[in-house]
Amino acid sequence: MKQSIKSDELNHHDEIKSSEDGSLILEELPKSADTHIVSNGTRSRHGSSFSLRNRNRSRGSSIASNILETIDSITIHNEQTDIDTKDPGLNSEIFYEKKMSPLRFRIRHFLLNFVKDETKPLLFIQTHCRNFIFDEYFIYSANLGSHFFYVICLPMTRWIPISDKMDYSRDLIYLLAYSIYFSGFIKDYLCLPRPKAPPIIRITHSEYTTKEYGAPSSHTANATAVTLYVILQLFANLQNFPIKKSVLYFGLIGMYYTTLSFGRLYSGMHGFFDLESGALIGLLTLILRLGSKKMIDYNLLTNGSVFYPIIQVIIGFTLLFCHTHPIELCPCFEDSVSFIGVVGGLEIADWICCNFGEKWLPWVTNKTPQNLYFQLPLPRFADNWYKIIGLRLLVGVTLVLIWKEVITVYITKKFFKLKTTSILSNKTLKQVQVREYEALPYKVIIWRYWIYAGIAIVSCFIAPLFFVLFGLL
Question: Which stretches are tagged as biased composition: Basic and acidic residues (predicted)?
């Protein structure tokens, strides 16, 4: 049945088509067809819009219906696409030209062309690859690059050393910290948008991350730096592993990299240019770390001068106060503050171990070379080594959480009169329209730095003291 109509006479059982003269044609859909209803309500608990699928099912398939409805509800909860909120980076070209220097604007304008051309291939990936299992896998595997994961898991590389002849924890912390800093710096400088949603659907549990700029991808920068580093270590120690183990390790690190990189495309969080630029930053960070490691770890750290940790803290604050300011409100800078703080705390704790540990710290006695004074001994117990490792993790994680979630929260509210130091993150979550950037107060930057420096000090110095107290060394 066909007839000319006005646009306000449509209902959801009809399909709109255009005739040759340009008028709207209403064509009734078969009653057996599935229909998609667009709801004006919320898409998820975070306030996003969503579409509910209305399937025709027989009464005899109630169990299958319940399973499908559960999957639908989880899928909807996972989607963070919000048609009512503008993402940063989507203002007009005139807006950015007024706010940026001529060079900065020209660079952004040139790179924006690469970002705009990526919508179709990203839609193709989501259209042809998306399913419930992949949704869940890439959502939870994205936590491998999350803030909380690093806070909890990075200290474990110090509590459970892989080798008693070489330390890997300092390399990993440096790689992750500076890949976050460099990627955040460039994100705020370029102000390039994430893939536009809609039409792209963002599949994530981290709503504040969707409010960051797009290129370069910090997940990919981290994954590239860590993956290449691990591959180099595996090649350097191939003689110590049987072939099957070597294949397994290479397979696992390949899976890690593929998951974090392709997962950003699948989940609609990044485009191809974001990944390429992130990978380049990860590579450069690795080169810088390997090139400076000998001077930092083998010379400066162990020379006994009290100026070493002081200079490291000064360098950290210099990097933070030289960090470029974005045009719109964006929470990237807070991650940079956190990771640079971790590096500062790491250097303080390791300097104490290297220069006072031989006399005062039980785990350092008679250890050589000096650049490994901060490393804990491996559990040497034949029967209960797994209990020692488990108790180290329990005690260590508890101490980190007490510092991060109890002590610093009390100090933040009592002395600084702040509800939180995550000001940028909270503001971006509450905004309906993207606002222009507001600089963080200096006291917030300084205190946030020391919160995360404290995490490193607790992990690398305070926790080992408790291990000694509880007989876990």
Answer: 1-20
Task: Give the Cα separation of 57 and 69 in Å (integer).
Answer: 11
**What is the torsion angle, in degrees rounded to the nearest 10, for the CA atoms of residue 177, residue 329, residue 109 and residue 267?**
60
Q: How many residues does the chain have?
A: 473
Nearest to 2 by CA among 14, 12, 323: 14
Q: Which residues pair with 28 in a beta bridge?
A: 14
168, 162 in Cβ contact below 8 A?
A: yes
Q: Which two tokens stand for residue 48?
A: 């996003």
Catalytic residue among 77, 109, 147, 219: 219
- 80 vs 102, residue with greater confidence: 102
CA separation for the pair 397, 400 (Å, rounded):
5
pTM for this predicted structure: 0.78
Give the DSSP letter string of 279-342: HHHHHHHHHHHHHHHIIIIIIITTS--THHHHHHHHHHHHHHHTSPPPSB--THHHHHHHHHHH
Contacts of 413 by beta carbon, 8 Å cutoff, 6+ apart: 419
* Amino acid of residue 418: L
pLDDT exceeds 80 at position 138: yes
pLDDT single digits (tens) 361-395:
877 766 666 667 777 877 665 567 788 888 999 99
Q: Which of 13, 147, 270, 325 is catalytic?
A: 270
Q: Is 270 a catalytic residue?
A: yes
How many Cβ atoms are within 10 Å of 143's Cβ, its own excluded? 13
What tens digit of pLDDT does each residue of 142-181 get?
888 777 788 888 888 888 877 767 788 899 999 999 999 9
Taking alpha carbons only, the member of 453, 461, 473, 470 closest to residue 374 is 461
